[in-house]
Specification:
By secondary structure, the chain is of the alpha+beta class. The chain has two domains: 4-186, Jelly Rolls (Sandwich), CATH 2.60.120; 189-301, Orthogonal Bundle (Arc Repressor Mutant, subunit A), CATH 1.10.10.60. 50% of the residues lie in helices and 18% in strands. The strands form two sheets. Strands 1, 3, 4, 6, 7 and 9 form a six-stranded mixed β-sheet that branches. β6 (59-65) and β7 (68-71) form a beta hairpin. The protein is elongated.
Length: 302
């Protein structure tokens, strides 16, 4: 097992990447053309306490994340949050690379509205192969914001500096949300295939002995089986159908429960256990929340 290097500060990132010390302790923009053009990291894996937003442009190479290795291309944008483990691999950087890496420490945003809402930017939990792919105009828009952040911490820090830096980070993340929505939209045919695959997966799950052995299918488990992160699966479903992954799972379970309530003589408890519930009362609560009535009442009225 390779060593995990735990990076706690932006200064440590600058040191690892071979660039000059940062101008601000909590936020930094690193330009790839300022880095050594051939970078070797060995077999080490890296975990940081930082948020990272990176535009890969003019950089060839790959990066490991979880069990997979991802070959990034120009116009690829990736996002990672604190405590995610990555495996940087050797890369070559063009002398005219326009790529950049933004890092910021949670302490920068902790007392701000962005600090309260950072978890709503679910793409920080996507897998690397679920990266954002940008047009030239989109790359330009985000790079202008990176320029503004860099310019702000390069000048004399005053009482407005932190607010303006955070505002530009938030604006960048909002644009990324828009661009991910665009990416979901233009890939709608592929997304429909994924939705069909998800529905087939649920059907196969309940035709097997997995409900008895594993219980209810979780969003995390479904994502793993479909080779995508739980957040990406949920966001994709939400964009295409208006319901997230958990809603789809619960709707499927309630539909199966309705069939069993009307088509069998099994008790409510037997149906609950058969669907993977550990406690029948949890099944009854879910059923009532989706139908407005208890399983017993639904059976009696139909």
């Amino acid at each position: 097992m390779s060593e995990i290097i735990h990076i706690k500060t932006i200064a440590e990132v600058h040191q690892v990447m071979g660039v000059p010390a940062p101008k601000h302790p909590l936020v930094s923009i690193i330009r790839f053309n300022d880095m050594p053009h051939n970078v070797e990291y060995g077999n080490s894996r890296i975990m940081s306490d930082l948020y990272l937003v990176s535009l890969k442009d003019g950089v060839s190479g790959s990066m490991g994340y979880g069990r997979n290795s991802y070959d990034f291309t120009d116009g690829t944008m990736i996002f990672t949050k604190p405590n995610q483990v990555m495996t940087p691999e050797s890369k070559e950087i063009d002398s005219d690379s326009k790529g950049w890496l933004m890092l910021f420490h949670p302490d920068l945003i902790r007392k701000s509205e962005l600090g309260k809402n950072i978890d709503t930017y679910s793409f920080f939990s996507y897998e690397l192969h679920e990266a954002l792919h940008l047009s030239e105009d989109e790359k330009s828009t985000l790079t202008i914001l990176a320029d503004k952040i860099e310019a702000e911490y390069n000048q004399n820090i005053d009482k407005h500096s932190q607010k303006l830096i955070i505002s530009n980070i938030e604006l960048m993340l909002d644009y990324c949300t828009r661009y991910f929505d665009r990416q979901f939209y233009v890939r709608t045919n592929l997304n429909q295939d994924i939705i069909s695959g998800f529905e087939l997966f649920l059907k196969d799950y309940y035709l097997s002995d997995k409900p008895d052995n594993l219980g209810l299918p979780t969003v995390k488990y479904c994502g793993e089986q479909l080779n995508m992160s739980p957040n990406y699966l949920s966001d994709l479903l939400k964009k295409e159908t208006g319901k997230n992954a958990r809603d789809h799972i619960y709707t499927y379970i309630v539909d199966k429960a309705k069939n069993k309530l009307l088509g069998t003589t099994e008790s409510v408890s037997e149906i609950a256990y058969g669907l993977g519930f550990e406690y029948p009362q949890h099944f009854s609560k879910l059923f009532k929340s989706k139908t407005g009535m208890s399983p017993v009442k639904y059976r009696s009225l139909n």
